[in-house]
DNA sequence: CCCTACGGATTGTTCAACAATCCCACAATC
DNA sequence: GATTGTGGGATTGTTGAACAATCCGTAGGG
Protein backbone atom coordinates (compact mmCIF):
# COMPACT_ATOMS: atom_id res chain seq x y z
CA UNK A 1 0.00 0.00 0.00
CA UNK A 2 0.95 3.67 0.23
CA UNK A 3 2.48 2.91 3.62
CA UNK A 4 5.58 1.47 1.99
CA UNK A 5 6.19 4.85 0.35
CA UNK A 6 5.80 6.57 3.67
CA UNK A 7 8.00 4.27 5.69
CA UNK A 8 11.44 5.66 4.80
CA UNK A 9 10.25 9.18 5.48
CA UNK A 10 8.89 8.18 8.87
CA UNK A 11 12.12 6.44 9.66
CA UNK A 12 14.23 9.47 8.80
CA UNK A 13 12.02 11.72 10.85
CA UNK A 14 12.22 9.57 13.94
CA UNK A 15 15.97 9.28 13.47
CA UNK A 16 16.29 13.07 13.31
CA UNK A 17 14.22 13.43 16.44
CA UNK A 18 16.39 10.98 18.31
CA UNK A 19 19.50 12.80 17.18
CA UNK A 20 18.20 16.16 18.31
CA UNK A 21 17.40 14.57 21.63
CA UNK A 22 20.85 13.14 21.91
CA UNK A 23 22.48 16.47 21.13
CA UNK A 24 20.37 18.63 23.41
CA UNK A 25 20.18 16.06 26.21
CA UNK A 26 19.33 16.95 29.79
CA UNK A 27 21.16 19.54 31.84
CA UNK A 28 22.68 16.85 34.00
CA UNK A 29 24.24 15.31 30.91
CA UNK A 30 25.37 18.67 29.66
CA UNK A 31 27.03 19.39 32.99
CA UNK A 32 28.71 15.98 32.94
CA UNK A 33 29.93 16.61 29.41
CA UNK A 34 31.39 20.00 30.34
CA UNK A 35 33.20 18.58 33.35
CA UNK A 36 34.48 15.58 31.45
CA UNK A 37 35.93 17.90 28.84
CA UNK A 38 37.66 20.03 31.44
CA UNK A 39 39.27 16.96 32.93
CA UNK A 40 40.37 15.33 29.68
CA UNK A 41 41.68 18.67 28.40
CA UNK A 42 43.78 18.92 31.52
CA UNK A 43 42.21 22.15 32.75
CA UNK A 44 41.08 20.37 35.89
CA UNK A 45 44.09 18.60 37.30
CA UNK A 46 44.26 15.42 39.33
CA UNK A 47 43.40 15.80 42.97
CA UNK A 48 41.47 19.06 42.76
CA UNK A 49 38.34 19.05 44.87
CA UNK A 50 35.03 19.94 43.29
CA UNK A 51 32.86 21.69 45.88
CA UNK A 52 29.24 21.20 44.95
CA UNK A 53 27.80 24.66 45.57
CA UNK A 54 30.44 26.63 43.77
CA UNK A 55 30.56 24.17 40.88
CA UNK A 56 26.79 24.19 40.54
CA UNK A 57 26.80 27.97 40.30
CA UNK A 58 29.61 27.93 37.75
CA UNK A 59 27.75 25.44 35.55
CA UNK A 60 24.43 27.18 36.00
CA UNK A 61 22.60 24.14 37.35
CA UNK A 62 21.18 23.28 40.74
CA UNK A 63 23.11 21.24 43.25
CA UNK A 64 20.86 18.22 42.81
CA UNK A 65 21.34 18.21 39.07
CA UNK A 66 25.07 18.62 39.51
CA UNK A 67 25.16 15.63 41.82
CA UNK A 68 23.65 13.46 39.10
CA UNK A 69 26.38 14.59 36.74
CA UNK A 70 29.07 13.94 39.33
CA UNK A 71 27.74 10.46 40.00
CA UNK A 72 28.04 9.65 36.33
CA UNK A 73 31.65 10.80 36.16
CA UNK A 74 32.43 8.83 39.29
CA UNK A 75 31.06 5.75 37.56
CA UNK A 76 33.41 6.51 34.67
CA UNK A 77 36.36 6.59 37.09
CA UNK A 78 37.23 10.12 36.01
CA UNK A 79 36.26 11.42 39.43
CA UNK A 80 36.44 9.81 42.84
CA UNK A 81 33.90 10.27 45.59
CA UNK A 82 34.93 10.15 49.23
CA UNK A 83 32.02 10.07 51.61
CA UNK A 84 31.41 13.33 53.41
CA UNK A 85 34.50 14.75 51.77
CA UNK A 86 33.24 15.27 48.26
CA UNK A 87 34.40 14.39 44.77
CA UNK A 88 37.87 15.01 43.44
CA UNK A 89 39.54 14.49 40.11
CA UNK A 90 40.99 10.99 40.23
CA UNK A 91 44.73 10.72 40.81
CA UNK A 92 45.88 7.54 39.09
CA UNK A 93 48.83 5.58 40.41
CA UNK A 94 51.03 2.78 39.13
CA UNK A 95 48.42 0.21 40.04
CA UNK A 96 45.86 2.02 37.88
CA UNK A 97 48.25 2.01 34.93
CA UNK A 98 48.92 -1.69 35.32
CA UNK A 99 45.23 -2.44 35.66
CA UNK A 100 44.20 -0.45 32.61
CA UNK A 101 46.94 -2.02 30.51
CA UNK A 102 46.09 -5.50 31.69
CA UNK A 103 42.59 -4.89 30.35
CA UNK A 104 43.87 -3.36 27.11
CA UNK A 105 46.27 -6.24 26.49
CA UNK A 106 43.33 -8.61 26.68
CA UNK A 107 40.89 -6.63 24.59
CA UNK A 108 42.87 -4.98 21.81
CA UNK A 109 44.95 -7.82 20.38
CA UNK A 110 41.94 -10.10 20.55
CA UNK A 111 39.86 -7.56 18.64
CA UNK A 112 42.55 -7.39 15.97
CA UNK A 113 42.88 -11.15 15.74
CA UNK A 114 39.30 -12.33 16.01
CA UNK A 115 37.18 -9.24 15.37
CA UNK A 116 34.45 -10.11 12.87
CA UNK A 117 34.02 -6.53 11.63
CA UNK A 118 37.19 -5.91 9.62
CA UNK A 119 35.43 -4.17 6.74
CA UNK A 120 36.06 -1.08 4.63
CA UNK A 121 34.39 1.33 7.01
CA UNK A 122 36.41 0.20 10.01
CA UNK A 123 39.68 0.17 8.07
CA UNK A 124 38.95 3.70 6.90
CA UNK A 125 38.39 4.76 10.50
CA UNK A 126 41.81 3.38 11.38
CA UNK A 127 43.48 5.28 8.54
CA UNK A 128 41.64 8.45 9.44
CA UNK A 129 42.94 8.24 13.00
CA UNK A 130 46.48 7.71 11.69
CA UNK A 131 46.22 10.77 9.45
CA UNK A 132 44.75 12.81 12.28
CA UNK A 133 47.75 11.87 14.39
CA UNK A 134 50.40 12.82 11.84
CA UNK A 135 48.63 16.10 11.14
CA UNK A 136 48.54 17.01 14.83
CA UNK A 137 52.16 15.96 15.20
CA UNK A 138 53.10 18.28 12.33
CA UNK A 139 51.55 21.15 14.26
CA UNK A 140 53.36 20.12 17.42
CA UNK A 141 49.93 19.67 19.01
CA UNK A 142 50.53 16.83 21.43
CA UNK A 143 47.11 17.01 22.95
CA UNK A 144 45.81 16.50 19.44
CA UNK A 145 48.12 13.53 18.99
CA UNK A 146 46.68 12.11 22.19
CA UNK A 147 43.15 12.48 20.86
CA UNK A 148 44.12 10.88 17.57
CA UNK A 149 45.70 7.99 19.42
CA UNK A 150 42.52 7.59 21.39
CA UNK A 151 40.53 7.46 18.16
CA UNK A 152 42.90 4.86 16.75
CA UNK A 153 42.44 2.51 19.66
CA UNK A 154 38.72 3.03 19.66
CA UNK A 155 38.72 2.04 16.01
CA UNK A 156 40.78 -1.03 16.85
CA UNK A 157 38.25 -2.21 19.40
CA UNK A 158 35.41 -1.41 17.01
CA UNK A 159 36.70 -4.31 14.90
CA UNK A 160 35.09 -6.56 17.48
CA UNK A 161 31.68 -5.36 16.34
CA UNK A 162 30.35 -4.68 19.83
CA UNK A 163 29.00 -1.28 20.85
CA UNK A 164 29.32 -2.25 24.47
CA UNK A 165 32.95 -3.19 24.14
CA UNK A 166 33.68 0.15 22.45
CA UNK A 167 31.89 2.00 25.24
CA UNK A 168 33.95 0.18 27.84
CA UNK A 169 37.13 0.89 25.89
CA UNK A 170 36.25 4.56 25.87
CA UNK A 171 36.21 4.54 29.66
CA UNK A 172 39.70 3.09 29.69
CA UNK A 173 40.90 5.65 27.16
CA UNK A 174 39.40 8.53 29.14
CA UNK A 175 41.31 7.32 32.15
CA UNK A 176 44.45 7.23 30.01
CA UNK A 177 44.11 10.98 29.54
CA UNK A 178 44.54 11.33 33.28
CA UNK A 179 47.75 9.32 33.10
CA UNK A 180 49.19 11.59 30.45
CA UNK A 181 48.26 14.76 32.26
CA UNK A 182 50.39 13.61 35.17
CA UNK A 183 53.41 13.25 32.93
CA UNK A 184 55.41 16.41 32.44
CA UNK A 185 56.38 16.33 28.78
CA UNK A 186 53.73 14.61 26.65
CA UNK A 187 55.86 14.17 23.52
CA UNK A 188 57.81 11.01 24.44
CA UNK A 189 54.54 9.31 25.38
CA UNK A 190 52.84 9.98 22.06
CA UNK A 191 55.43 10.47 19.33
CA UNK A 192 56.86 6.93 19.14
CA UNK A 193 53.46 5.42 18.51
CA UNK A 194 52.48 7.37 15.42
CA UNK A 195 54.49 5.07 13.17
CA UNK A 196 53.31 2.03 15.06
CA UNK A 197 49.71 2.93 14.41
CA UNK A 198 50.43 3.35 10.71
CA UNK A 199 52.16 -0.01 10.53
CA UNK A 200 49.32 -1.77 12.34
CA UNK A 201 46.72 -0.16 10.10
CA UNK A 202 48.75 -1.28 7.07
CA UNK A 203 48.96 -4.86 8.32
CA UNK A 204 45.21 -4.94 8.85
CA UNK A 205 44.44 -3.48 5.44
CA UNK A 206 46.62 -6.22 3.96
CA UNK A 207 44.83 -8.90 5.96
CA UNK A 208 47.86 -9.74 8.10
CA UNK A 209 46.01 -10.00 11.38
CA UNK A 210 48.62 -11.96 13.30
CA UNK A 211 51.32 -9.45 12.41
CA UNK A 212 49.07 -6.60 13.47
CA UNK A 213 48.17 -8.30 16.73
CA UNK A 214 51.72 -9.12 17.78
CA UNK A 215 52.89 -5.63 16.89
CA UNK A 216 50.04 -4.15 18.91
CA UNK A 217 50.74 -6.39 21.89
CA UNK A 218 54.40 -5.40 21.93
CA UNK A 219 53.42 -1.76 21.56
CA UNK A 220 51.13 -1.96 24.58
CA UNK A 221 53.85 -3.60 26.62
CA UNK A 222 56.42 -0.89 26.02
CA UNK A 223 53.88 1.89 26.46
CA UNK A 224 52.91 0.46 29.83
CA UNK A 225 56.50 0.26 31.01
CA UNK A 226 57.13 3.80 29.86
CA UNK A 227 54.15 5.08 31.83
CA UNK A 228 55.06 3.09 34.91
CA UNK A 229 58.57 4.54 34.72
CA UNK A 230 57.05 8.00 34.48
CA UNK A 231 54.97 7.41 37.58
CA UNK A 232 58.06 6.12 39.35
CA UNK A 233 59.82 9.39 38.65
CA UNK A 234 56.89 11.33 40.03
CA UNK A 235 56.92 9.28 43.22
CA UNK A 236 60.67 9.76 43.48
CA UNK A 237 60.35 13.51 43.13
CA UNK A 238 57.58 13.59 45.73
CA UNK A 239 59.76 11.60 48.13
CA UNK A 240 62.86 13.76 47.79
CA UNK A 241 61.01 17.10 47.91
CA UNK A 242 58.34 16.77 50.60
CA UNK A 243 55.88 19.62 50.92
CA UNK B 1 -2.93 -3.02 35.73
CA UNK B 2 0.74 -2.42 36.12
CA UNK B 3 0.00 -0.74 39.42
CA UNK B 4 -1.43 -3.82 41.09
CA UNK B 5 1.47 -5.82 39.74
CA UNK B 6 3.91 -3.38 41.29
CA UNK B 7 2.34 -3.14 44.72
CA UNK B 8 3.57 -6.34 46.39
CA UNK B 9 7.02 -5.55 45.10
CA UNK B 10 6.91 -2.12 46.64
CA UNK B 11 6.01 -3.68 49.95
CA UNK B 12 8.93 -6.09 49.83
CA UNK B 13 11.28 -3.28 48.94
CA UNK B 14 10.31 -1.22 51.93
CA UNK B 15 10.73 -4.28 54.13
CA UNK B 16 14.27 -4.89 52.92
CA UNK B 17 15.32 -1.31 53.43
CA UNK B 18 15.80 -1.47 57.17
CA UNK B 19 17.96 -4.51 56.75
CA UNK B 20 20.41 -2.82 54.41
CA UNK B 21 20.73 0.45 56.26
CA UNK B 22 23.55 -0.75 58.45
CA UNK B 23 25.53 -2.49 55.71
CA UNK B 24 25.76 -0.10 52.80
CA UNK B 25 26.98 3.43 52.92
CA UNK B 26 24.81 6.01 51.22
CA UNK B 27 21.09 5.60 50.72
CA UNK B 28 21.43 6.16 46.98
CA UNK B 29 23.68 3.10 46.82
CA UNK B 30 21.28 1.12 48.98
CA UNK B 31 18.40 2.01 46.71
CA UNK B 32 20.41 1.09 43.62
CA UNK B 33 21.39 -2.22 45.18
CA UNK B 34 17.83 -3.09 46.10
CA UNK B 35 16.56 -2.32 42.63
CA UNK B 36 19.39 -4.17 40.93
CA UNK B 37 18.62 -7.22 43.00
CA UNK B 38 14.95 -7.10 42.10
CA UNK B 39 15.79 -6.94 38.42
CA UNK B 40 18.41 -9.68 38.40
CA UNK B 41 16.16 -11.89 40.51
CA UNK B 42 13.46 -11.44 37.93
CA UNK B 43 10.94 -9.88 40.28
CA UNK B 44 10.92 -6.76 38.15
CA UNK B 45 10.30 -7.85 34.60
CA UNK B 46 11.47 -6.27 31.39
CA UNK B 47 9.48 -3.28 30.29
CA UNK B 48 7.90 -2.37 33.61
CA UNK B 49 7.92 1.33 34.29
CA UNK B 50 9.37 2.63 37.51
CA UNK B 51 7.44 5.73 38.57
CA UNK B 52 9.67 7.91 40.69
CA UNK B 53 7.29 9.01 43.43
CA UNK B 54 5.88 5.62 44.29
CA UNK B 55 9.25 3.95 44.07
CA UNK B 56 10.85 6.60 46.25
CA UNK B 57 8.20 6.05 48.90
CA UNK B 58 8.64 2.29 48.76
CA UNK B 59 12.40 2.57 49.17
CA UNK B 60 12.08 5.16 51.88
CA UNK B 61 14.22 7.72 50.13
CA UNK B 62 13.50 11.06 48.56
CA UNK B 63 12.88 11.44 44.88
CA UNK B 64 16.23 13.12 44.30
CA UNK B 65 18.14 10.34 45.98
CA UNK B 66 16.17 7.79 44.01
CA UNK B 67 17.06 9.56 40.79
CA UNK B 68 20.74 9.16 41.60
CA UNK B 69 20.19 5.45 42.05
CA UNK B 70 18.23 5.19 38.82
CA UNK B 71 20.95 7.03 36.91
CA UNK B 72 23.47 4.51 38.09
CA UNK B 73 21.37 1.57 36.95
CA UNK B 74 20.80 3.26 33.61
CA UNK B 75 24.57 3.52 33.23
CA UNK B 76 24.72 -0.21 33.93
CA UNK B 77 22.25 -0.84 31.12
CA UNK B 78 19.88 -2.60 33.50
CA UNK B 79 17.37 0.22 33.15
CA UNK B 80 16.61 2.50 30.25
CA UNK B 81 15.69 6.15 30.60
CA UNK B 82 13.41 7.81 28.09
CA UNK B 83 13.23 11.55 28.51
CA UNK B 84 9.98 12.74 30.04
CA UNK B 85 8.74 9.17 30.06
CA UNK B 86 10.77 7.80 32.90
CA UNK B 87 12.92 4.75 33.44
CA UNK B 88 11.88 1.23 32.57
CA UNK B 89 13.49 -2.14 33.01
CA UNK B 90 15.48 -2.73 29.83
CA UNK B 91 13.98 -5.10 27.28
CA UNK B 92 16.88 -6.69 25.42
CA UNK B 93 16.52 -7.81 21.82
CA UNK B 94 18.51 -9.98 19.44
CA UNK B 95 20.91 -7.14 18.71
CA UNK B 96 21.69 -6.84 22.41
CA UNK B 97 22.44 -10.56 22.62
CA UNK B 98 24.75 -10.41 19.62
CA UNK B 99 26.50 -7.34 21.00
CA UNK B 100 27.07 -8.79 24.43
CA UNK B 101 28.36 -12.04 22.99
CA UNK B 102 30.65 -10.25 20.56
CA UNK B 103 32.23 -8.59 23.59
CA UNK B 104 32.39 -11.84 25.54
CA UNK B 105 33.99 -13.73 22.66
CA UNK B 106 36.75 -11.14 22.64
CA UNK B 107 37.33 -10.91 26.36
CA UNK B 108 36.87 -14.39 27.80
CA UNK B 109 39.00 -16.59 25.53
CA UNK B 110 41.76 -13.97 25.61
CA UNK B 111 41.68 -13.94 29.40
CA UNK B 112 41.99 -17.72 29.43
CA UNK B 113 44.83 -17.73 26.90
CA UNK B 114 46.88 -14.75 27.97
CA UNK B 115 45.73 -13.91 31.48
CA UNK B 116 48.76 -13.43 33.72
CA UNK B 117 46.93 -14.31 36.92
CA UNK B 118 46.38 -18.06 36.65
CA UNK B 119 47.29 -18.80 40.27
CA UNK B 120 45.91 -20.99 43.03
CA UNK B 121 43.43 -18.42 44.28
CA UNK B 122 41.87 -17.85 40.89
CA UNK B 123 41.74 -21.56 40.08
CA UNK B 124 40.02 -22.16 43.40
CA UNK B 125 37.46 -19.49 42.53
CA UNK B 126 36.72 -21.34 39.28
CA UNK B 127 36.25 -24.63 41.09
CA UNK B 128 34.06 -23.01 43.71
CA UNK B 129 31.79 -21.63 41.00
CA UNK B 130 31.58 -25.07 39.40
CA UNK B 131 30.63 -26.66 42.71
CA UNK B 132 28.08 -23.93 43.38
CA UNK B 133 26.50 -24.69 40.02
CA UNK B 134 26.20 -28.45 40.52
CA UNK B 135 24.79 -27.92 43.99
CA UNK B 136 22.13 -25.54 42.74
CA UNK B 137 21.35 -27.89 39.86
CA UNK B 138 20.85 -30.70 42.34
CA UNK B 139 18.21 -28.59 44.08
CA UNK B 140 16.56 -27.77 40.78
CA UNK B 141 17.33 -24.13 41.54
CA UNK B 142 17.91 -22.70 38.09
CA UNK B 143 18.23 -19.16 39.30
CA UNK B 144 21.01 -20.43 41.51
CA UNK B 145 22.62 -22.14 38.53
CA UNK B 146 22.48 -18.82 36.73
CA UNK B 147 24.24 -17.10 39.60
CA UNK B 148 26.89 -19.80 39.71
CA UNK B 149 27.43 -19.46 35.99
CA UNK B 150 27.84 -15.74 36.46
CA UNK B 151 30.45 -16.36 39.14
CA UNK B 152 32.27 -18.77 36.88
CA UNK B 153 32.63 -16.28 34.08
CA UNK B 154 33.63 -13.53 36.46
CA UNK B 155 36.38 -15.85 37.70
CA UNK B 156 37.43 -16.51 34.11
CA UNK B 157 37.86 -12.82 33.42
CA UNK B 158 39.63 -12.34 36.74
CA UNK B 159 42.47 -14.39 35.22
CA UNK B 160 43.36 -11.25 33.29
CA UNK B 161 44.35 -9.57 36.54
CA UNK B 162 42.43 -6.38 35.89
CA UNK B 163 39.85 -5.06 38.32
CA UNK B 164 38.46 -2.81 35.65
CA UNK B 165 37.97 -5.65 33.21
CA UNK B 166 36.15 -7.65 35.87
CA UNK B 167 33.90 -4.69 36.63
CA UNK B 168 33.05 -4.33 32.95
CA UNK B 169 32.41 -8.05 32.69
CA UNK B 170 30.01 -7.82 35.59
CA UNK B 171 27.96 -5.32 33.63
CA UNK B 172 27.72 -7.74 30.74
CA UNK B 173 26.76 -10.57 33.08
CA UNK B 174 24.09 -8.47 34.77
CA UNK B 175 22.61 -7.80 31.36
CA UNK B 176 22.68 -11.53 30.68
CA UNK B 177 20.26 -12.01 33.56
CA UNK B 178 17.78 -9.92 31.62
CA UNK B 179 18.18 -12.22 28.64
CA UNK B 180 17.44 -15.28 30.69
CA UNK B 181 14.42 -13.76 32.36
CA UNK B 182 12.86 -13.31 28.94
CA UNK B 183 13.21 -17.00 28.18
CA UNK B 184 10.39 -19.12 29.43
CA UNK B 185 12.08 -22.24 30.75
CA UNK B 186 15.53 -21.46 32.16
CA UNK B 187 16.78 -25.02 32.34
CA UNK B 188 17.90 -25.56 28.72
CA UNK B 189 19.88 -22.33 28.92
CA UNK B 190 21.83 -23.29 32.00
CA UNK B 191 22.00 -27.06 32.31
CA UNK B 192 24.22 -27.86 29.31
CA UNK B 193 26.95 -25.57 30.52
CA UNK B 194 27.55 -27.06 33.93
CA UNK B 195 29.74 -29.79 32.51
CA UNK B 196 31.44 -27.36 30.16
CA UNK B 197 32.45 -25.18 33.08
CA UNK B 198 33.90 -28.18 34.88
CA UNK B 199 35.87 -29.25 31.81
CA UNK B 200 37.26 -25.75 31.28
CA UNK B 201 38.25 -25.45 34.93
CA UNK B 202 39.97 -28.83 34.65
CA UNK B 203 41.90 -27.77 31.56
CA UNK B 204 43.07 -24.63 33.29
CA UNK B 205 44.10 -26.47 36.44
CA UNK B 206 46.18 -28.77 34.21
CA UNK B 207 47.77 -25.84 32.39
CA UNK B 208 46.07 -26.60 29.07
CA UNK B 209 45.18 -23.03 28.22
CA UNK B 210 44.62 -23.52 24.51
CA UNK B 211 42.20 -26.38 25.12
CA UNK B 212 40.33 -24.30 27.68
CA UNK B 213 40.16 -21.31 25.35
CA UNK B 214 38.87 -23.18 22.32
CA UNK B 215 36.30 -25.02 24.43
CA UNK B 216 35.17 -21.72 25.91
CA UNK B 217 34.94 -20.06 22.52
CA UNK B 218 32.80 -22.87 21.14
CA UNK B 219 30.66 -22.77 24.26
CA UNK B 220 30.01 -19.05 23.81
CA UNK B 221 29.10 -19.57 20.17
CA UNK B 222 26.44 -22.19 20.86
CA UNK B 223 25.08 -20.29 23.84
CA UNK B 224 24.66 -17.20 21.68
CA UNK B 225 22.81 -19.10 18.97
CA UNK B 226 20.58 -20.71 21.54
CA UNK B 227 19.65 -17.33 22.99
CA UNK B 228 19.09 -15.78 19.60
CA UNK B 229 16.81 -18.68 18.71
CA UNK B 230 14.93 -18.09 21.95
CA UNK B 231 14.44 -14.45 21.10
CA UNK B 232 13.26 -15.43 17.64
CA UNK B 233 10.57 -17.58 19.18
CA UNK B 234 9.44 -14.70 21.35
CA UNK B 235 9.19 -12.42 18.34
CA UNK B 236 7.28 -15.11 16.47
CA UNK B 237 4.81 -15.52 19.29
CA UNK B 238 4.32 -11.75 19.50
CA UNK B 239 3.68 -11.58 15.77
CA UNK B 240 1.11 -14.36 15.67
CA UNK B 241 -0.76 -13.24 18.80
CA UNK B 242 -1.05 -9.46 18.56
CA UNK B 243 -2.33 -7.59 21.58
C1' DC C 1 54.46 17.17 72.26
C1' DC C 2 50.04 14.92 72.26
C1' DC C 3 45.31 15.01 73.06
C1' DT C 4 40.71 17.01 72.97
C1' DA C 5 36.97 20.08 72.38
C1' DC C 6 34.88 23.45 69.29
C1' DG C 7 33.26 25.97 65.15
C1' DG C 8 32.97 26.47 60.32
C1' DA C 9 32.50 24.33 56.02
C1' DT C 10 30.84 20.64 53.10
C1' DT C 11 28.23 16.75 52.13
C1' DG C 12 23.98 13.64 52.41
C1' DT C 13 19.23 13.94 52.19
C1' DT C 14 14.71 15.67 52.35
C1' DC C 15 10.79 18.54 51.03
C1' DA C 16 7.93 21.41 48.24
C1' DA C 17 7.23 23.59 44.19
C1' DC C 18 6.98 24.77 39.06
C1' DA C 19 7.43 24.28 33.98
C1' DA C 20 7.83 21.03 30.27
C1' DT C 21 6.41 17.07 28.36
C1' DC C 22 3.91 12.94 27.51
C1' DC C 23 -0.29 9.97 27.42
C1' DC C 24 -5.10 9.17 26.95
C1' DA C 25 -9.68 9.98 26.17
C1' DC C 26 -12.98 12.68 23.80
C1' DA C 27 -14.76 15.62 20.50
C1' DA C 28 -14.57 17.48 15.73
C1' DT C 29 -13.72 16.89 10.96
C1' DC C 30 -13.51 14.91 6.40
C1' DG D 1 -14.86 5.01 10.07
C1' DA D 2 -10.47 6.78 10.26
C1' DT D 3 -7.82 10.74 11.13
C1' DT D 4 -6.92 14.94 13.25
C1' DG D 5 -7.24 18.69 17.03
C1' DT D 6 -7.76 19.42 21.96
C1' DG D 7 -7.93 19.51 26.70
C1' DG D 8 -6.75 17.36 31.37
C1' DG D 9 -4.14 14.43 34.28
C1' DA D 10 0.00 12.28 35.35
C1' DT D 11 5.02 12.11 35.32
C1' DT D 12 9.42 13.87 34.66
C1' DG D 13 13.20 17.61 34.72
C1' DT D 14 14.90 21.03 37.59
C1' DT D 15 15.19 24.32 41.10
C1' DG D 16 15.77 26.39 45.80
C1' DA D 17 15.96 26.11 50.54
C1' DA D 18 16.52 23.70 54.54
C1' DC D 19 18.51 20.44 58.24
C1' DA D 20 21.41 16.73 60.27
C1' DA D 21 25.71 14.29 59.91
C1' DT D 22 30.31 14.45 59.19
C1' DC D 23 34.86 16.18 58.36
C1' DC D 24 38.79 19.49 59.07
C1' DG D 25 41.57 22.90 61.08
C1' DT D 26 42.52 25.25 65.17
C1' DA D 27 42.98 26.63 69.71
C1' DG D 28 43.57 25.26 74.45
C1' DG D 29 44.71 21.93 78.20
C1' DG D 30 47.48 18.45 79.98
Automatic annotation (TrEMBL), chains A, B:
Could you list the residue ranges that cross the membrane?
none
Instruction: Tell me where on the tree of life, at the top rank, the source sits.
Output: Bacteria
Domain HTH gntR-type residues, every copy: 25-92
Record's Pfam families?
A: FCD, GntR
Q: Which InterPro entries match?
A: GntR_C, TF_FadR/GntR_C, Tscrpt_reg_HTH_GntR, WH-like_DNA-bd_sf, WH_DNA-bd_sf
Q: Which UniProt keywords apply?
A: DNA-binding, Transcription, Transcription regulation
According to UniProt, the name of this protein is GntR family transcriptional regulator
* Native organism: Nocardioides imazamoxiresistens
